[in-house]
Amino acid sequence: xxxxxxxxxxxxxxxxxxxxxxxxxxxxxxxxxxxxxxxxxxxxxxxxxxxxxxxxxxxxxxxxxxxxxxxxxxxxxxxxxxxxxxxxxxxxxxxxxxxxxxxxxxxxxxxxxxxxxxxxxxxxxxxxxxxxxxxxxxxxxxxxxxxxxxxxxxxxxxxxxxxxxxxxxxxxxxxxxxxxxxxxxxxxxxxxxxxxxxxxxxxxxxxxxxxxxxxxxxxxxxxxxxxxxxxxxxxxxxxxxxxxxxxxxxxxxxxxxxxxxxxxxxxxxxxxxxxxxxxxxx
Length: 282
Prior knowledge:
282 residues
């Protein structure tokens, strides 16, 4: 019989793959549309998928407290994306992406240690290898070795936003999956619209970017799988494994766009695979 922990591990890994595919699509979409238009379209399509699934399951709306956690998670995730986009626009991609990724993993792991106790030594080693692997896979070449202070601060804020999403969405009441995520994505959509209005960028039509709509469906799918994983295993395990999404993003870019993958990125992918083995052990 498969243990709950193994089920949680598999769901978290599936979440990483789906999230990474969504990020790949979002990156393609931003080549032809404003990043906040992409964010709005992705949030909209994600809400559509979640509404259909919630109605099909007959899932109840979350309690006011769970709705508060979910809405806060949506805002945290959207602010994380906004900070990341702004930081990347400063030309510091080589350091911004891995910094945000590592911070977003570290915060939930520390939170899990406080609320659930420290995991075993083997799993801690797995966490460390995963963080190192994520850093290496996310790191790109061709940028300055010195991070501008503003870009570094924005990267930290992005990591805090993503880490906040991981923690806050996991606080919703057990058993609910789709309706809390509807609340979260609605908060994301609302913030995206506000950012577009503040920047005087026109609101996108649904035909602006089909790729962004597809990315939103994938991102919502990753959220569903992550929330399910959290119901079967510890928060830190679900977060670390789900945060391996840069691996699938890089691999898709390598396979489909023929982008070059550096040696350290392959090393990072190898460390991530070793981390999966260690974290998956009972």
